[in-house]
Amino acid sequence: MSTTMKRALPDGLPAPDQPPLTKPYWDGTRAGKLVIQRCKGCGAHQWGPEWVCHRCHSFDLGWEEVAPTGRIWSWQRPHHPVHQALTGFGPYTIVLVELPHAGNVRMVGNLICEPTAPVEIGAEVEAVFEPHDEADPPYTLVQWRLKG
Amino acid sequence: MSERTLRGKVAIAGIGETTYYKHGQSPDAEFKLALQAILAACHDAGIDPKEVDGFASYGDDRSDAPRLAAALGIKELRFSNMHWGGGGGGVAASVANAAAAVHSGMANCVIAFRSLAQGQFARYGRSRLGAAAMGDDAFLAPYGLISPAQRFAMKITRFMSDRGIRHEALRAIAMASYHHAQSNPRAVMYGRPLTEEKYDASRWIIEPFHRLFDCCQENDGAGAVLVVPADRAKDLPHKPTYLLGTAQGGHHRSAAPVHNAPDYASAHFPTVAKNMWAMAKLGPQDVDVVQAYENFTGGVLLSLVEHGFVDPKTANEFLVLENLLAPSGKMPMNTSGGNLAECYMHGLEMVNEAVRQLRGTANNQVAGAEVVAVLGGPMVTPVSSLVLGTEATL
């Protein structure tokens, strides 16, 4: 993980809060791993984090590393800047990525691509870990790029 | 067991609204706007404002019931209710909550209202986040997913891509609102028609389905309706407008975090619409006029589909301008100009318009309208809808 990699978006956007409920996820991304909630009671994957399993109501939710790959379930390409950090930037591409091997949970991130690149629903993507080492506390975002 | 229903039990006896202003243009404070709209609704109903004994609102309205009750010298406050959820998801629910209070005997005379002078506070379309994004936003805002349009856009991308629905269908929705606003002097967009060319040339807010005219504006103003028992409405000045059916909520895990609703490409009406039609003992085929909340035109498409007004298979053919226009389109829709062109009063203006259509006093009147549906703000949770009708529909 290089700290000099080009980031998907300009600096200055809000940093993720990392409360106890979601801390294991952010700890995982710092180590280059994608970890999500998995119920120790019934085995259901769950995303985003919650205190209880939506399927069996167990509070015994563990965290499991899952392969950092998925497929594009939907997408959007904002042009209008809604945050001061985005003024004069854009368009940029946001994808909703489904993880078929992890109960079809979905994650939101940026697709690393040209701003005019066509985006195809169903396309296979892989995670790119984007560290923000200078932040306090530091954090690592999960971006996506088309596979191979 | 007797049937539990609101069908025909209550009526909207009065409607009121302020002048509608462009964002930030109201000369009056937001709370004053609320008072004006409420007093107008009471006047319209021929009821002394001091008889009002309840207030219901939604979208975290800042004009709170205790202050309203004190300001208006209400004799006795018996019901105050704020519906969870932002934006206009709760517009029909506020009327329904007022109705439930009236029918249950908790109150006699309840105002459902919305007041907004957003310019005096903050913009919806701009981030109000601090340096750290909390809750769901922690997984969204760092990726530049912040505004309401961005929260909903991927539902629309997926639904329209799957179903092969073209952007022109959304253009017809936007143009219907603007068309109707041209004959409604109350409308903020009165005198500002929208053409296909102007729409097509408008800038992208979000690709692939949000041009400028697909997105609601922000406005200042207030709107209110007065809900009373059905029996009482018969003795008041206007032809009564009865509540026939209403429902609120969302289907299974529609508010699941980080865009994980199982049925994601949805406006969240599948169960709500079913429950509303069941209470009304009606279906989309019985409706004469539709008021469908536009936060974004793609959300209107989803609402119409989930309430059974539009079949996705024929959406491209059906959603053309002529079908959506009063007086004689197949499905006259947003006949006052709606959120897009009358006023973004979070749908309360649509309830008022539904009442006008049923009284026969609308600017774009659909002749003989007996049943009007109001589909509240889509794609949030909870969403809400209602159906109103004339005495003939009871």
From TrEMBL, chain B:
Family matches, as InterPro entries: Thiolase, Thiolase-like, Thiolase_C_2
Coiled coil (UniProt feature): none
Transmembrane segments: none
Residue ranges of every copy of the Thiolase C-terminal domain listed in the record: 256-387
Highest taxon of source: Bacteria
The entry's keywords: Transferase
Molecular-function annotations in GO: acetyl-CoA C-acyltransferase activity
Pfam families (alphabetical): Thiolase_C_1 (PF22691)
CDD domains linked: SCP-x_thiolase (cd00829)
Protein name: Acetyl-CoA acetyltransferase
Species name: Neoroseomonas marina
